[in-house]
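ok, trying the design again with the full structure, not the truncated one.
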């Protein structure tokens, strides 16, 4: 089994930030404090994380910029790529984040409201710096009860009437170099990634797709990588200490997924208990909802 484009698969802890603190909840609600962003990031770096994603979950709803102070402090502490999202509404916003030490910027709501922003970011910084973050919710449409995945924003509270697959295609055409795909229905549930959504997305776009939303076990991560995802993102299982990153990477390597491994082996092996596929059907049409608009 090989990763897309022959690259290593990646393990990416995600840290939701609000008020300068890492928080975690279910579907962005009932948030609980997890600690200081820089300290937690340094711990993940030491454990062998391949990258880190920070999402300022209050920036878009509150229509404010991301606080640069914790971004700078984190960049000083870690030596792996950092993606920071939330509050990016302009090229200048992205420039400030990259100047504070971020390696990539994640953009979500602002790209839907102004798709040309993706073109502008890619032209200024390069596609490798532009991560299109898509929150998708499962919907059933029409008399035929056809399955669709709809883009939602503002922590899942605002449906946008946009087909997630079609929007990803347009985003890549405009310059996004990576798709961070979150199943809002699975986020924080520990029930596993939405494999149908992931399969549909990885078959539709030529750029790396990061699976997000629902990771509860290393087996879930293996299933996501088998759909063609380039990376798996998780929060709760790492924040709560349920699994160590080194152990998860060793488990995935044992399953045939190419991983960057440290010299030291894992301290506590993970058992191989294969739960059933949580998404039995791959047939997900991608043309039931509009995309944000033509150029």
């Amino acid at each position: 089994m090989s990763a897309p484009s022959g690259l290593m698969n990646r393990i990416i802890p995600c840290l939701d930030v609000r008020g300068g603190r890492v928080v975690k909840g279910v579907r962005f609600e009932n948030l609980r404090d997890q600690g200081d962003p820089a300290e937690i990031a340094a711990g993940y770096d030491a454990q062998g994380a391949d990258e880190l994603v920070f999402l300022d979950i209050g920036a878009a709803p509150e229509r404010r910029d991301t606080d640069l102070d914790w971004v700078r402090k984190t960049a000083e502490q870690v030596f792996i790529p950092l993606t920071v999202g939330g509050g990016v509404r302009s090229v200048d916003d992205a420039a400030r984040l990259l100047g504070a030490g971020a390696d990539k910027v994640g953009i979500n709501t602002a790209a839907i409201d102004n798709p040309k922003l993706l073109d502008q970011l890619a032209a200024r910084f390069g596609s490798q710096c532009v991560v299109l973050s898509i929150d998708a919710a499962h919907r059933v449409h029409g008399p035929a009860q056809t399955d669709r995945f709809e883009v939602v924003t503002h922590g899942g509270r605002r449906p946008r009437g946009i087909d997630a697959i079609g929007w990803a295609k347009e985003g890549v055409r405009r310059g996004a170099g990576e798709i961070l795909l979150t199943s809002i229905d699975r986020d924080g549930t520990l029930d596993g990634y939405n494999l149908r959504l992931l399969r549909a997305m990885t078959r539709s776009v030529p750029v790396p797709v990061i699976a997000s939303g629902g990771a509860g076990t290393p087996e879930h991560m293996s299933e996501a990588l088998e759909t063609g995802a380039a990376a798996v993102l998780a929060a709760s299982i790492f924040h709560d200490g349920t699994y160590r990153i080194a152990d998860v990477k060793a488990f995935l390597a044992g399953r045939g997924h190419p991983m960057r491994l440290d010299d030291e082996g894992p301290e506590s092996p993970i058992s191989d208990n294969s739960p059933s596929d949580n998404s039995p059907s791959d047939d997900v049409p991608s043309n039931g909802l509009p995309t944000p608009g033509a150029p």
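Keeping the full-length input from now on. The two ends are 38 Å apart (CA to CA).
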